[in-house]
Amino acid sequence: MNNKLATMVLTPLLAAGLLLAPLPALSGATVEAAAAPAAVAATKSPLVYVDGKKLTLSASAFAQNGVTFVPMRNIFGALHASVTWEPKTQTIIGRKSNITITLTVGQKTALINGKAVKLDAAPIVKGGVTFVPVRFISQSLGATVKWDSAANTIRITSPEEAERLAYEKWLEQQANIPKLSTKQIVDKYDQSVVLISTNVAQGSGVVIGDNLILTNYHVIVDATSATAMMVNGEALNIVGVVHYDETDDLAIVKTEESIGVPAVEIGYGMNTDKGSKVVAIGSPLGFQNTVSEGVISNIIYQEGVRYLQISAPIDHGSSGGALFGDTGELIGITSGGMENTTAHLNVAVSVMHAAMLFEGVSEQMIKDAKFLPPSLPDTLAGAPFAEVKKLMEEQFGSVQLKAETATFTNWEVKRDAEGWYVISADIDPLFYMYYGPASADELRIWAANLGYELNRMLPDEKIQFIVSYDRVLTFEPRGYEENEVTPAGDGKWRLRFPVIDMQVKDQLVIDVKQ
């Protein structure tokens, strides 16, 4: 205790002695050295971190009038932007994506994409290095800037890093979403899936609004009337199409009355991984709201459309149905599959396309909902042959089959000597050579549908539709009918024979070459 008091008393006495007597040994240099630490602390250069990493600077950052400056090339480069220095005008031009920033040394006005912006401080040249205000540059390039006063540090987060962090947070959230059993998914959503019947087709649909149903485009195209059958047996009249995308094979239809069941939320379905469990609800072959399970077998991109290949069994009538992931999220709209296989090679259009379609819906579009104009006219009676030929080329020039797309060319329309209305075309010979026999049943169905449409448009005509194989060969083939092989000149031979012969009046007959 006494020592402590002595010490406390000693300090003022020493101070008084120093004031009264000079100390020769304490030189001016020593005074400067003693004062230096305080000066250094006052002017210590701020540190700059970009995306959590310390930014290496070609010259130290410094603060002036509350604004921190850093070398221009370092900050532009760290934020993935290019920078150009114009020495004559002392102009700085930075570019990133669709952003262009123009600054001039000594001027407190900058340009962002040509628009003038006031600066808190102008760029300066110091020691041969061009410095720019770090906050202005960073924020102009979409980055966020925070000042850490305790660490004397500026912390910058680039938009790319912010996006990455947000995605990681989303992944963490997705991982914590509880998984649902098939029964839980059915209990939650079964009432929100409907059976759609039109005057030309039958499919399924998913309720996405008070009076809005999402389905496949091919379910509703060419329809002039339709109903939505609820799982409780209630039938709702569909009054038209609100919005559609033929490429994505999606359409949103409107019911005349409120549907009265919970709407299924439409997201972007990004939480879909190969091998994940899926549950499909639809009406295959008219069996309403049939439930099937499977997995995502593959993820396919075709002509800009994202498809989920699934093993869940579906069939005709499932088109437009709901595909749910294991968290109960709607991830796709079931749309098609391969027939005559036990592999369950089925596909659903990713819900991301439905989300984009839904975002484009306006109140006016809902108000103006109506059925789409039919792709085929009500009648072709009296139409010029050239007009009929053009229609056939546009509407029936190709058909997507299981194996490949079959194309038809060299269309002709005429009336023969016996008064028959004859339409003819040639099938791609390479397609027929490789896939013809395997595609015979599909070609038969296609021709039958075509016959139905032709009879509808030309009800008073006897119609014959002939599709032929036609190819010029360098040798004379054997084993064909005499009239199927004819000389083509220059030592070549033409092989031509009918592949499809469809005839229709009040009845229809089809012969497809096997």
From TrEMBL:
PANTHER family: SERINE PROTEASE FAMILY S1C HTRA-RELATED, SERINE PROTEASE HTRA2, MITOCHONDRIAL. The lineage of its organism: Bacteria, Bacillati, Bacillota, Bacilli, Bacillales. SUPFAM superfamilies: Copper amine oxidase, domain N (SSF55383), Trypsin-like serine proteases (SSF50494). One of its GO terms (molecular function) is peptidase activity. Residues 49-156 form the Copper amine oxidase-like N-terminal domain. This is S1-C subfamily serine protease. InterPro entries: Cu_amine_oxidase-like_N, Mao_N_sf, Peptidase_S1_PA, Peptidase_S1C. Residues 1-27 form the signal peptide.
